[in-house]
Specification:
Helix content is 24%, strand content 31%. By secondary structure, the protein is an alpha+beta fold. It is globular and about 40 Å long.
Length: 131
Amino acid sequence: MGHGGSSTKCKNWLDLERSLALAFHRSADEPICKVVLSYRCWAEPEKGMGNMPESAYVLINVLPGQTANVKNLLAEIAEIKSIDACWGKPDIFAKVEVKTQEDLTQLVLTKIHAIEGVSQTDTHLVYLLQE
């Protein structure tokens, strides 16, 4: 890989995090201002990141008087794992799990937005913090 970049095979997110830490670590004999120009990591799909489900919270605003109906229709969607109606805005918090971010896009745009009474959504993708 040109320009001083490196390439590493990663089995999971933790390997990716460790690889990045190593890539940016400065040893005693390196100059203080070393620049990493490129870095690439690939995963083994059968073992790593490719099989991890994407989780997200979809915050849903509903037209007045439609919350119960919208909640019932959301419950019919397999990718939605939990649904909580709340006071204030948004009206509903839905936790979803999908295989890919493209699946998430399709879920929100074609299934959730298609429900009568849904006026607006705000989607928040979940990420895992490693300690």
